[in-house]
What we know:
By secondary structure, the protein is mainly beta. Helices cover 0% and strands 48% of the residues. It is built from no helices and ten strands. A hairpin with a 6-residue loop joins strand 4 and strand 5. The radius of gyration is 13 Å and the shape is globular. The N and C termini lie far apart (40 Å). The relative contact order is 0.33.
Amino acid sequence: xxxxxxxxxxxxxxxxxxxxSCTSIGDTLDYYAIGWFRQAPxxxxxxxxxxxxxxxxxxxxxxxxxxxxxSRDNAKNTVTLQMNSLQPADTAVYYCNKVSNxxxxxxxxxxxxxx
Length: 115
């Protein structure tokens, strides 16, 4: 069964950047539209960005538009989220998954934005 693996999180000061990576074990991400989601303490999980299987289309939630960029490299089985101008409100555990018919969630990667 496919296992999702997220990495790249950490502690960063406001205004800083992080680059998150998503890959899979047991199957490929290639054929699926993939989203990045986040869940902050006490809040529901929300999708912040998604990208089509062919890398032709992407979408962003309003809070991250202009600051986050999603991309994918199907040859490397990786979907990446470049996060710039990070704000404390971006603090959350970040996950990747299909945009529908979800796979089991991975462990996620913690992003903490704090001075």
